[in-house]
Design a protein that fits this description.
alpha+beta, Alpha-Beta Plaits, 6 strands, flat
């Protein structure tokens, strides 16, 4: 088995979106994620993962300048990540197809194999 990182992007999922959603809508969204992750765990494919807040800090370049970001206006905000085990890219893609991030037209799942370091 190989290790893969799934990176979830959904421009519509930001602090403003959650502020206007009802508690029931938020709970329903989290239930979809829980069901998907539970299924991966039952298959022994889930290693771990978490949602991320839309705000943070960015450390840049040789000057190591610290700036606020990413910004919620950005179109490429990472909403969360997951570490899974899969046989190959085809298997990782198949496991990703039920991801709730894909329930929205702008949502995406980036699938990257984790490079082993000896």
């Amino acid at each position: 088995m190989k290790n893969f990182m799934l990176v979830f992007r959904s421009p519509q999922q930001n602090e403003e979106t959650f502020a206007i959603q009802s508690p029931e809508q938020i709970q329903a969204e989290f239930a979809l994620w829980k069901t998907w992750m539970d299924n991966l765990a039952k298959e022994g494919k889930l290693v771990g993962g978490d949602p991320l807040f839309p705000h943070g800090k960015v450390l840049k370049g040789t000057s190591k300048k610290l700036v606020d970001g990413p910004f919620i206006e950005g179109k490429d905000i990472i909403g969360g990540y997951m570490h899974i085990k899969a046989n190959d890219y085809a298997d990782a893609v198949a496991l990703s197809k039920d991801c709730p991030a894909l329930n929205n037209n702008d949502g995406s799942v980036e699938i990257r194999e984790i490079m082993p370091v000896e």
